[in-house]
Specification:
By secondary structure, this protein is α/β, with parallel strands linked by helices. Helix content is 28%, strand content 25%. The radius of gyration is 19 Å and the shape is globular.
Length: 268
């Protein structure tokens, strides 16, 4: 196999700033500090305690920013980062569902917003099916979680469907647990055409996702059952942070393992 980078050519590590040190952010931080990702280095960690000056300096020094905080943080960070010509990996994808958020401005660059696939997969075949044509296409994403992870305090004796609607409405209703639905919608039929079903199951020991596609091209059903990150109060699948790490690992190689890209294409 021919090497991706010619021998003798020195490659500078990709400088990463992580915003947020919760369940997702801390896993990413730990992986980078342990040098688990070749050609990627952690240069800064930002939280709500940092000053505006510290934040600006960290963003300026980074090649790429990982947003692993909240929708409120993503709303502020996105334009600041892409306007600097930097890429940002967005974990709080629900920000794109807000009607007053200027998605077109973010998509115009010069930096890019990268959405990791998070707790689900199959984006390659679903995006390909979308490219083939969307007439007659239907896509449903069903999520089954513990009631507490959905903010439901009522004691349930059996599973209950607590939401059925568009990916946009799901993100606005469950902003901290619908990120995969938003990424899936933006990769395929859009926020207003993808149907989302949310089920609260008091017996759930994990988080389950079922993605169903139907179009003249074919029928697909993908099922994912994820362990829950213990630091997330039941909201986040443990695989989510590793999907972010996988995107970071692929960037220095100039390839992508499956991220939704919003912004101008990069051609050498």
């Amino acid at each position: 196999m021919r090497p991706l980078v010619p021998e003798g050519v020195e490659r500078r590590p990709l400088a990463v700033c992580v915003v947020g040190a919760g369940a997702i952010g801390q896993t990413v931080i730990d992986a980078l500090r342990d040098n688990s990702v070749p050609d990627v280095t952690l240069t800064a960690v930002l939280t709500s305690r940092n000053s505006a000056e510290e934040t600006a300096a960290a963003l300026n020094a980074a090649d790429i920013v990982v947003e692993a905080a909240t929708v409120d943080a993503a709303r502020i960070l996105l334009p600041e980062v892409v306007n600097r010509g930097k890429d940002i990996i967005v974990c709080s994808c629900g920000v794109f569902a807000e009607r007053d958020f200027d998605v077109e401005s973010v998509g115009s660059g010069p930096g890019r917003a990268l959405l990791p696939t998070g707790a689900i997969g199959g984006f390659d075949v679903l995006a390909a099916a979308t490219r083939a044509g969307t007439r007659g296409a239907r896509l449903t994403h069903t999520t089954i979680k513990r009631p507490g992870a959905l903010g439901i305090e009522e004691r349930l004796d059996a599973e209950r469907t607590v939401f059925r609607g568009s990916a946009r409405k799901a993100a606005l209703t469950f902003p901290r647990t619908s990120n995969s639905s938003v990424a899936l919608a933006l990769a395929t039929l859009g926020l207003d055409r993808v149907e989302v079903v949310v089920i609260a199951d008091p017996a759930a020991a994990s988080t389950r996702h079922v993605v169903e596609w139907e179009s003249p091209l074919g029928r697909y059903e993908l099922t994912f059952e994820n362990a829950i990150d213990p630091a997330s109060s039941g909201r986040t699948s443990a695989i989510t942070a590793w999907s972010v790490i996988e995107v970071l690992a692929a960037l220095p190689l100039g390839i992508g393992p499956g991220a939704v890209v919003l912004g101008p294409s990069r051609r050498s």
